[in-house]
Structures are given as structure tokens and as C-alpha cells.
Amino acid sequence: MSALARAARAEARKLLFSRALPALAACAAVLAALTMSSPAGFPGGPLLMTAGPDPSRIGGAIGFIGNVVDPAAPGLSAVRTSLVYTALWIPVAVAYGLATFSADFACGAARVSRARGASLARLGTARVLVSCCALSALYAASCGVALAFKAAQYGVAIGPEELSAFAGAVAVDALGLCALASWSAALYAALRGPFVSIMAQLALAALVLLGYPSAYGAASAAGAAAPILPWALHPVFYLLNASALCLDAAQAALALAVCAGMLAGGVAAASAASSLKEV
User: Mind listing the pLDDT tens digit for each residue in 224-243?
Assistant: First the structure.
């Protein structure tokens, strides 16, 4: 077993007995419950950060769109509704990434590990990767439960097309959320200031959540192409598109690659900052 695998195994055990994992599980349950309790009747909703010419059509608008049923695709409408509270997963991921990474520094365990000769870079990499696995699993489970409930509520069957769309969107969203968590860890590793780290992350996310739909709506009204840069440099851009089922197969593959690159960059930055910064 490699040193990184041993570190990941140790970090997984540590996460199981931490306060962060139950808190994340509670958030997943609450957000699933919110989705399931959202009204299915007209006029639907919630509509969060939505922009585009026709939210009633699958692919007709970006954002987080709940309970707006496309008569031509009610199953895909259930998929889209199951992802509506991805918007609230953004602050959860930011806070979770910082909490799991900073725990050892707060209690002095990182200082002990360093004194024993352990590589803080390797421990940091393992901690972020293990935390992201838990985040992805709970996000997917939360949305999956919501999808099953909403499909039953709409009276539609979930077939291969819906499952494929759900899997693709959840994969992009989960990687995007993990990228946010990893960069929270990286900022904390560099700054060792939890308040500054989390506020910087939330401010950037809010900038994209507010700015990109506004730019998208203006472009749609003018009949122009949808804006990409600079919004595509942040994971939230991909969440806004994937959650609305606005990505075709090629675009989803590109989004997965970009979000994976952002996650890798966050992990690398957290590891490098851990090894360079004094504990």
C-alpha cells in the first residue's frame, strides 16, 4: 500500500468520527426534504438564479429550476427539479471543505504529525480527496432520493434517458462542488484564516451566481451567443448549466474535464500550501 493510500485510509477513519460528516449528512437530508416538499402544482418553483427565454422547456434556461414541467419531457423535468437546491449546496461545500481541512490545525494534530516526520502535503492531499468522496456521495444520494420522490409525484417513469441525464448532471455538479471545497482548503492552508477563506469563496461564488445569469439573460434578449468567459473560470458556471440540463454529451464531458482540473488544482494548491506554510 502506498503512502498516499495509507494516509487516505487514516483520513477516512478520522472523517467517520468527526463532526463534519454528520453535519454534512444532516444538510443532505434537509436539502432532499426541501426538494421533496416543494410544490409540484402551478406555478411551480423555486426558480433560483434562472435566466433564459423559456424555463418551461428543458434546456430553455439556465439556473436552478424546480417544478416547472416540460410537457414534452416530464421525466427530465423531475430530474431538473431534483437538482434545484444545488444552489444551497454551494455554501455547504465551501464550509465543509474548510471545516474538514482545518480540523487538524485547530486541535494541534497537524503539529504533532509534522513533529513525527509525516508529510503535511501528503496528509493534506489525502484529507481533501477523502472529504470530496464523502461530499460527492451524499450530494448524489440527496438528489437521488429527491428524484425518486418527484418522479412519483409527477406520475412519470424514470427510464434510461432520465437516468443518463441525472448521472451526467450529478457528476458535473459533484465535481464542481468538490472543486469549491478543495479551494476552500487551499485558501485556508495558505492564509490560516477561516473567516477570510470562507468569505472569499462565498464572494466569488455570489459574483458568478448573480453575474452570469444577468449576462446570459442580456445575451438571450439581444439574440447573441451565450457568454462563456470569464464565468467559465469558476465551478459555479458549470453548476448553473448542468443543473438546468443545458449541457449536451460533448459539453458535459468538457464540463467534467474542467471541473476535474479545478479540483486537481485545488488539491495541489492545498498540498503545496500545507508543505510550505509553517504550522
Answer: 888 898 999 999 999 999 99
